[in-house]
């Protein structure tokens, strides 16, 4: 750019989406001021997928999982750590940070999610959620005493944490609120496979159970875990994997629609100067013909890049493109990689094939009205990613790059009740 760029862009959120927005603005040559409000963790951005896996297992340190620092040249970057955006005045295009109002030409909302922790479980010694580096470090600090661990919740975070703790030789009990671990995320077939893997590695599971009370005695003493059927158990460590809630509190009263995250248009724009990306963004995905909010790591970076492209299109007088994406996530447990592409919400048919030819590892595809909408498998990266290329917009004919369906012998075809996947962050 010629001359001094006087524009100011505020990036709210210090995780992957915010980091990607800052990096992408620099890559595109933006030379105005970028104010990056990174939140209250007071640490540099890091890779969250490692928290419940390699970091929990002691294979990686905090330094190992840090994201690269954004380039120092290009835009004028001001980093604000240790505090959150407190309020958005959308009519005046400004945000309140601490006691300072910061005016902006564009705002990127990337504040993500916070762990869901019932109030009566908060502050108990030995009881932890797992959403941040500090959470994971607090759990790791207890592992030297070899405590019996109870993991409450069996979505992605709960299942990964149970697998990591068991790999370290700890006695682990996994409390599954539904019928099967990860069922709300990957469906019945892979949920059953996941349950069998936990059992084969020595994890005790408690199915269709709800924890009603946690009570701790003296510091370092056992925690009593009470269930809705009247049963109790004891643990030295309790990890809560009960999902997360959108970090939208600071946006109340701003005029944005916060009914489920930040509602955006297809280009990820919430209003003319405000964009959203990552876990918090709720947008109409033309690939699936409906609104969605995706809490997976790969989505955060992809949306952040797209949000910057949409803003750039506005600046250059171009039409903003729609974010038409096929969601993807993975989970590593006991040396196995679970992967899923697509969006299985509302499916009416499931087909199960053998990923390895012996029926031991299922490859599952989901259909709605005869159209492929999702696929999931275990240690079947090539097959799952080929399936991803077959998921396309309903009004678009498959192109030459879509590729054939993976070969495989169908072992069962079933028509099931519609599956509604849960919203669990891959960490």
Automatic annotation (TrEMBL):
Keyword Ribonucleoprotein: no
The FAD/NAD(P)-binding domain, residue ranges: 8-304
Keyword Flavoprotein among UniProt keywords: yes
Residues of the signal peptide: none
SUPFAM superfamilies: FAD/NAD(P)-binding domain, FAD/NAD-linked reductases, dimerisation (C-terminal) domain
Coiled coil: none
Domain of life: Bacteria
Domain Reductase C-terminal: residue ranges: 328-390
UniProt-recorded name of the protein: NAD(P)/FAD-dependent oxidoreductase
Organism of origin: Streptomyces albipurpureus
Lineage: Bacteria, Bacillati, Actinomycetota, Actinomycetes, Kitasatosporales
């Amino acid at each position: 750019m010629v001359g001094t760029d006087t524009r100011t862009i505020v990036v709210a959120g210090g995780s992957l989406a915010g980091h990607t927005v800052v990096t992408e603005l620099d890559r595109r040559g933006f030379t105005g001021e970028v104010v990056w409000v990174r939140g209250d963790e007071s640490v540099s951005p890091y890779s969250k997928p490692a928290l419940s896996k390699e970091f929990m297992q002691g294979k990686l340190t905090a330094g190992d999982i840090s994201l690269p620092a954004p380039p120092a040249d290009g835009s004028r970057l001001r980093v604000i750590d240790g505090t959150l955006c407190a309020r958005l005045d959308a009519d005046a295009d400004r945000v309140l940070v601490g006691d300072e109002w910061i005016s902006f030409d564009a705002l990127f909302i990337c504040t993500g999610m916070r762990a869901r922790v019932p109030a009566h479980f908060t502050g108990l010694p030995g009881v932890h959620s797992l959403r941040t580096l500090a959470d994971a470090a607090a759990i790791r600090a207890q592992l030297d005493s070899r405590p019996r661990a109870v993991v409450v919740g069996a979505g992605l975070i709960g299942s990964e944490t149970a697998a990591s703790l068991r790999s370290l030789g700890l006695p682990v009990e996994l409390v599954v609120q539904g019928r099967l671990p990860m069922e709300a995320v990957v469906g019945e077939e892979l949920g059953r496979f996941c349950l069998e893997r936990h059992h084969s590695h020595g994890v005790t599971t408690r199915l269709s159970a709800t924890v009603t009370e946690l009570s701790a005695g003296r510091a370092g003493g056992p925690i009593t875990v009470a269930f809705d059927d009247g049963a109790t158990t004891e643990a030295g460590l309790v990890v809560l994997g009960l999902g997360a809630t959108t970090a939208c509190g600071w946006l109340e009263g701003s005029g944005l629609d916060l009914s489920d995250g930040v509602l955006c248009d297809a280009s990820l724009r919430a209003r003319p100067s405000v964009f959203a990306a990552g876990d918090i963004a709720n947008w109409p995905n033309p690939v699936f013909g409906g609104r969605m909010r995706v809490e997976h790591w790969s989505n955060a970076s992809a949306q952040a890049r797209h949000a910057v492209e949409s803003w750039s299109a506005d600046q250059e007088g171009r039409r903003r493109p729609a974010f038409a994406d096929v969601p993807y996530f993975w989970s590593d447990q006991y040396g196995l990689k679970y992967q899923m592409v697509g969006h299985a919400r509302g499916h009416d048919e499931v087909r199960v094939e053998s990923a390895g030819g012996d029926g031991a590892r299922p490859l599952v595809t989901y259909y709605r009205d005869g159209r492929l909408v999702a696929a999931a498998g275990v240690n079947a990266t090539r097959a799952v990613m080929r399936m991803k290329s077959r998921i396309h917009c309903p009004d678009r004919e498959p192109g030459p790059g879509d590729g054939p369906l993976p070969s495989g012998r169908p072992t069962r075809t079933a028509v099931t009740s519609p599956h509604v996947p849960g919203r669990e962050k891959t960490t």
